[in-house]
Design brief:
alpha+beta; eight-stranded mixed sheet; globular
Amino acid sequence: MNDQQSQSLSHLRHSAAHLLAHAVTHLFPGTLLTIGPDTPEGFFYDFLPARNFKEEDLAIIEQKMYELAAQDIPIEHRQVSKQEARQLFAHNRFKLELIDGISESHVGIAHQGDFIDLCKGGHVPSTGYIKHFKILSISGSYWRADRNNQPLQRIAGTAFATAQELQSFLQAREDALKFDHRRLGRQLDLFSFHEEGVGFPFFHPKGKTVLNLMTNYLRTLLDKAGYKEIATPMMLSDELWKQSGHYQHYKDNMYFSNIEERSYAIKPMNCPGAILIYKERPRSYRELPLALAEFGLVHRFELSGVLHGLFRARAFTIDDGHIFCTADQIEEQVLKAVKMVQEVLVRFGFDDITIGLSTMPDNAMGDKALWDKATQALANALDHAGAKYKINEGDGAFYGPKIEFQIKDSMGRFWQCGTVQLDFFLPENFDLTYVASSGNKERPVMIHRATYGSFERFLAILLEHFKGNLPFWLAPVQIKILTITDAQKTYAQEIKDRLVAHNIRVEIDESSDQISAKIKSAQLEKIPWMLVLGKKEESEKTATIRYLDGKQEFGINIDDLVGRAVKSSQE
C-alpha cells in the first residue's frame, strides 16, 4: 500500500467513525461523544451513553450506519472560532475540554446532515463512499486513556474500500480468534494464567519443554558466535536504575521493594546487570568485542486492561545479548547480530522479514550529534549487508537507535521481533572503559541484541502462526503411540525406548479408549506423528504412521521409523 492509498483508507475509516457516532446519536439520544479516530485495523468511537450499550445493540447500530450511508449525505469540513465551537458543544464537557486544549484560534468542524463533530479533517466526500464496513466489538475505556478519568464505552469496527478486502479481513480475524494462543495454550496444556498472579504466566511441563527447545537452539548459535552466558540478580538497588536512566523513563512500570531500609527494584531490563559484570575488573582492547548473553526474567507493571496473554504479560524472559566493542568493531558486530536474528527467524518458518531503522525519540538521552553518529553506524552496517530497510522516525529507545525486524505470519499479520540497538549512553553513564593499544583509557560502545525479544511473546506468535501445529522439531510431544488393544502395550514400550534413546519425545496413550478415540485425542493435542500398533504391526515389527493431516504410511520398519524421526528433528 502506497502513501496515497494509506491516506485514502485513513480518511475512509475516519469517516466511518463519524458515521458510527451519527448512528448512535440517532438511536440513543443523550449519548455524549468523545473521540473517534481511525486505527491501523479500522476505527473506534468512545461514548458516554445514557445507559450502557449491550452486545445486541451493535447489530442495530450497524444497520443504522448502512441506512445513513445509503442516503449519500455530503460530508463538509470547515474552520470555526473556538467561541463558536464552544457554543456548538456547550452540552458536551468532553468536547469543551478538547477545544480548550487546542492552541490555535480556530478549530475544525465536520458536518453530515444533522450530525456535527469536532474534527481536524480528513474525510470522504459523502457517506455514500462508506460502503464496506463492519462493527466488531464493544469494550470499556477511559477518557484520555486514564483509568482515573470517566469510564466510557468503546465501539470498534473496520472499513475497507472493497467488499473483497473486508471479507478477507473478517476471515483473517475469524482465524485469529479461532487460533488465539490463549485458547491453544489451554488446549495443548502449555500454559495458564491464574487470579493469584494476574498477568504472570504459569508454564506447564509441555510449555516448558517448548521454551527449553527454543533456549537450547539459541544457546547453540550463541556458543558458536562466541557469546559468554551470564546470569544477573532479579532485584537490584534503585540507585543502579537511576544511574542507567531506567528509573526516570520506566519507574511507573517497575516493581519496588524495601529491604533493610534500602529500596530495590525488580529488574525491568537486563542491561545494568551485564554492565556491572563488565565493570568487575579493568578491560583490555584485547578482550573486545566481549559478547555477554543472558536469558533474563524481567518484570514490568502493566495495567490489567492491556494484558493480553503471552503477548502482553507482567513477567517475561528476554534473550539478551550485550556486546561491548570498540568504535571500529561496530559495523562487524552489528552485521553478525543482524545475520543471527535473520537465521533464527527463518529457522522458525518466517521468510517474509522487514527491517526498520528506528531513530531518535522525543525522550532521548544525550545530544543529537551522538545520536546521529549512532544512527549512521547502524545504517552503514545495513547498507554493507545489502539489506533493504525503512526509516522509523522517532521510534528508537531513549538510550539509542535500533534495528527492528518485523515478520509476517501465516495469517498475514505483522509482528515486531528481534532488535539490534546501538548505545553510547550507558557506557558514558557507568564510566565504562577499556585500555586501548596506546595505553590510554577509552570508552567502549555497547550493542544490545535480542533475537526472540520476549520468549513468551515469540511463543505466542509461533502458536498462532502454526495454528497450534508446531513443527516436528519444536513439538513438546513429537510422537504418540496408539495401541489397538492392550496386547500391543509391550511392543509399544519397546518402540518408545528405541525412540527415546535418540532423544525423540514420545508418549504412549495408556487409555482403554477405542483406537478412533485415541486418534481424535492425539489430533486435538496436535501431535505431529501418531504410531498405530495392532496385531499385524507387532507380528511384522512395523508401525503405521498417521500424520496430523490424516495421511498414513503402512508397514514402516522400526529402524526406518527411528531414522525418519531423527532426521525430522534436525530439519
